[in-house]
């Protein structure tokens, strides 16, 4: 009914939904190991010109670039286009309501999309899903800075500004 959770040590095993419930971990001393890493701030921080933090990510009905999931009608109906998620406090400051069109600009580009007021995001941050191409691609805004160790692009955070725009 809910799937099978790894590990499954034998074919008939029902799965292990939660590991380490007895408080013992797979180390000689039985304790969990944490590795502290030094914090590195993002390559681009907010400032007076771009005062809002943008983060990008997934929505449940789409996957990666959406080339497959955007072809499935019921999934498209759940989230037909990218929306800017914005906290009620920031939305009120900018005079925005759910459905209003917003121009989101960074040092690299801009895009216009509808906003959705949600309480699930910080008041100083906005969110755009990354599943759409071309003019609707959130990565038109993101920074191309690379992590110095992994060389993974820093697509998850950059500074932006917002401007309410008239309906098309």
UniProtKB/TrEMBL annotation:
The keyword Iron applies. One of its GO terms (cellular component) is membrane. This is Molybdopterin oxidoreductase family protein. GO terms for biological process: respiratory electron transport chain. Gene3D superfamilies: 2.40.40.20. One of its GO terms (molecular function) is NADH dehydrogenase activity. Residues 53-159 form the Molybdopterin dinucleotide-binding domain. It comes from the Bacteria. It comes from Tectimicrobiota bacterium. Keywords: Iron, Iron-sulfur, Metal-binding.
């Amino acid at each position: 009914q809910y799937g099978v959770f790894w590990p499954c040590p034998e074919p008939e095993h029902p799965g292990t939904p939660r590991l380490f419930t007895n408080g013992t971990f797979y180390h000689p001393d039985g304790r969990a190991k944490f590795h502290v890493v030094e914090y590195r701030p993002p390559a681009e921080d907010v400032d007076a010109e771009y005062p809002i933090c943008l983060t990008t990510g997934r929505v449940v009905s789409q996957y990666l670039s959406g080339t497959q999931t955007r072809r499935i009608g019921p999934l498209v109906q759940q989230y037909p286009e990218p929306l800017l998620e914005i906290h009620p406090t920031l939305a009120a400051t900018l005079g925005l309501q759910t459905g209003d069109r917003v121009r989101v600009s960074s040092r690299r580009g801009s895009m216009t999309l509808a906003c959705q007021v949600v309480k699930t995001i910080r008041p100083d941050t906005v969110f755009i899903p990354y599943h759409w191409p071309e003019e609707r691609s959130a990565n038109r805004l993101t920074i191309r800075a690379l992590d110095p160790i992994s060389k993974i692009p820093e697509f998850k955070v950059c500074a932006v500004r917002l401007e309410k725009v008239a309906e098309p």
